[in-house]
Amino acid sequence: MRRVRNFIEKQGFFVLLAVCVLVIAGSGIWAYTLRDAEENMPADAASDYTQRLADAERMRISRPMAGNTIRGYAEAIWLDTLACFGAHQAIDIAATKGTDVLAARDGTVTAAYRDGQWGGVVEIEHANGMKTIYKGLSWPVSVKLQEKISALQKIGKVGALPVEASDGAHLHFELLADGSPVDPARHIMD
Questions:
Q1: How many CA atoms lie within 13 A of 27 on its CB side?
Q2: In which element (H, E) is residue 23 found?
Q3: Which H helix or E strand runs over 173?
Q4: β-strand 75-79 against 91-94: which pairing, if any?
């Protein structure tokens, strides 16, 4: 212990000086690396921000019907007919049976079918890799396969949703972006 103390008393200044020089040199190298990285960025500094705004705009959708959201996206839910928990990759909007359901955006109907667990189902492809899916519709639905539809056009009415029967009548509304589920509530225009 005494040796260490003697060393620090005699050589401490030089050790501290060496540490300071290393810190300053390291900071200089780090700053040079950052400057070099910035020089390799696109010329238009706002291009990234502009792209994010364009992506957000392409994802804007209308609310498919009035009503309160009774279940949000990514909640774990009990699926009655399957007797298990599952991930909820949609929002559920409360409604009475017979309430009109509207298309969230212009598009083309790519599927319209009746499912034993989901009731009437309509899938609509939109521009830019978007797809909306409406489950819990009464059968028959108001649109046909490959039909071109406009935003806010009636596509069906709220019916039964056996897999989520304990929640009462509601619309199960999904949004996909390039095939991946995303939270529809984050993209609905008010």
A1: 6
A2: helix 2-39
A3: strand 170-177
A4: unpaired
